[in-house]
Structure formats: C-alpha cells, structure tokens
Amino acid sequence: MRTSGMRPGIILEYVEGGESKTRSIDLLDLRPDTDVTALVEEIQKREPLITASCLEHIIHLVQRLQEKLGEKQNHKFSLFKVLRTHILPLTNVAFNKSGSRFITGSYDRTCKLWDTASGEELHSLEGHRNVVYAIAFNNPYGDKIATGSFDKTCKVWSTETGKCYHTFRGHSAEIVCLSFNPQSTLLATGSMDTTAKLWDLEKGEEVATLNGHSAEIIALSFNTTGDRIITGSFDHTVAVWDVGTGRLLHTLIGHRGEISSAQFNWDCSLIVTGSMDKTCMLWDAVTGAHIATLAGHSKEVLDVCFDYAGQRIATASADGSARVYNAGTKQCIAKLEGHEDEISKVCFNPKGNCILTASSDKTARLWDAATGHCLQILEGHADEIFSCAFNYRGDTIITGEQLSRFDRFDLDMASQNCRGWKGPLEVIQHNSLPCSEPCHPGRLLTTDMGLNISKDEDSTVSLHNLLSI
To answer: Among 71, 331, 377, 449, which is least packed by CB within 10 angstroms?
Structure first.
C-alpha cells in the first residue's frame, strides 16, 4: 500500500490469478480536521481489500497524508536562469509530469525540448511548415510529445530521440488545441475547421472525426478515465462526446459568447466552462444539465479550472481579476485582485492551496486559494505573460511571454528549492505535487482575412525556483 501523489488517496496493491494489480481509492474529502479512523472504517465497508489485518496500517498511511495536507509552507520563488531559445515568438509551454523537462512551441515552426535543471536544449523538433501552436507531453508517461500546427497537421515525437513517429493529416484548417488521453493510446486534435479528430497512436491512423460544431473548436479535454472528451467552440457551445464511438452525447447550451476554456473535474461528474460572455458555467457531466452560472466578472472569462479535488473552481478574466468558487455551494469564496491588466491563465498548485495567474501586466502572481491574499508577485518579464503552469510536484513554475521584437526568445529560470513561475519563461522549484495541462496561449480571433492571434507581445519563458524563508 502507498499514498497516491497525484491527488489525495491511497493505492492498494494485490495479487489476483498470479498477476500483480492495483486499485486506487480517492480521498478527495480528506482535510486536516477529518476523523481518519472513521473515514477508513467507512471505506472498509465498501472495499473488501481492506481487511482487519491491514486496517491499522491504512489508518497510519492516511494520517501521514493528512499531516502532509496540513503542512503550513512559507516559501518564495526566485528567478533561476535565462535561456536563449526560439528566434521567433513563443506560442505555448508545457511540462512533463516531474518537471524535469519542458517544451516550447514557436512561430519559427519548431517545438523544442529542454532540460529544466540545466537549461540545455535536448531536441529541436522540426518538420512543420507553419506555426507550431499546440503542444503536449503524454503525461504521466512523458515519452511522447505532440505538436499541432497552422499547417493543418499534427506530429507525434519521441521524447528520448526526437524522432517523428507519425504525421497526422486530415484537418482542413489550423490545429489550435490537442490532448493525449490518460492511457496515452489516443491523441485528440481540435481545429479551426470546426471538427475534432481522434488518432490511434499505435497504428498512426484516424479513429474518429467529431462533427457537430458550427464554428471553430478552440478547447478540448479528456476526462480522467478517458471515456469522454469535451470540445469548446466559437459557436458558444461545448460538446460532450463518447470516445469509444465518437458519438455526440450532449451539447451544453447556455453561453452567449465564444467558449474560452472547458474542463472536467477529477471524478468526471462535473464540467466547468468559461466564455467571452463574462460568465463561467457548471454542468452535470453525466446528463449535460446546467447546474449553475458563476457570475461576477465585468469582462470576458479567459480561463477556468478545477482544483485536483474538484471542490474549487478558479476563473481568470480580462477585467484583471481572478475568482475562486466553491463547486458545492456555487458561491464566490475569494476575489484575486491586484493585476493591472487582463489575466489569460489561471491554475491551482497540486495541493490546491495556492493559485497561479499570468497577466498582461507583465507579472505572474501566487495567491492563497482560501483567502485570495497575494502571496508573491513574480516579476521579470519584459512584456505580457500569456502562459503559466506548475509541474507535477508543485515545486516548479513556468511562465511564458512573447516578444514583440520577434528577434529572440528569453528563458528565465530560478535556482534552489522552489515552486513558481516568473519572467519570460520561468521555472520555479520547491517541494509540492501534480502537473498542469499545457497552457492556452490566449484568445484566437478570426477575420475575413483568416486567422489572427491576440496574445502576449513578448516571446520569453522564465523558470523560477521556490525558496524557503
């Protein structure tokens, strides 16, 4: 038996038919004041693997996890290192699970793989004929990288060798979002051609085309079991699809503006959506029913996310503020105010007690998720920050900006044991928990002349480390 690092929980290991197997038990309701003995005894009633002989050991494990959740940390991030990278602006950044490596996409038509600690460029993934816009690792494995391009193709690469495994062709317009399924057997791509596609990674062929939207798809996400996928579109709707059959299950109708972001919670019961109509909406993932509208922002909602327990929702807005809502009560519990310009990205750290925001005011900020108090301002970027993320452990932060000079890409990194992000592309390190999804680089705008991208004006990436004080 061991604790689960990705979310509050334990993993039971057992042997069945001579084969070693595991079973995960989520402890999403575990809090510092939870009666652990009562909690484990309740779990035992429905879990036959927890026998009387191992009960005390499991109680001890959960108590250790509870102590970890209750730890009070007083850490600061600091800038670690600056790298010279792409010759043209940055489009996106993403970590592997551990944060030991990260990737950058660029207008220079390449994706580059970097070693976080040394800042060394490991591979330059070349082959696209236009902007590399969407990028992702196949976390938690991290042995593959996917790149989606304005050349209408998607490529899958080996993290170890930089070799291109597959080039997926079939979209008739730019690919602007993509995601691996949790099992790393499928890749989903979303395009300005109004469709999403599912690709088999072993066979290297298309599995399904998801038709149903009447406008561009700019967001997509698998649930944690991999049997459902959602797509968000400029047609103001989010579609829920069955991955196995490609069948449209639900269309979430209610927003009055373009969808900017959409995500499942961890247990796959809820979906949260953000829109240019200034609202965030909560939906039942099973029935597709609208549960609540989370209002309060005065301008467009540019990003939304759940914490890893699915109990809190964070929103980022063009009004320069972020908000935290209780997913159960649907009430706003904190307002994150302090940025001087729009916030394009928001994410929780793995423990769920801190929130990171990236803003056009050239700063990223770290906030207390419960109180909304600003814990730290991460400065150092020369221009608007469009992207930010924690690694899996929560001890490293990365932030990205895109230089208007279009002449260089600066990567800042911080040293010592830290968590956080800063500067152009910043990585910050400390001791914490999971890795966020790849960052959305900003808003996509369409015109009669084609595709324009509204995003940061500085092409640097910064890495920060978390310092104990």
So the answer is: 449
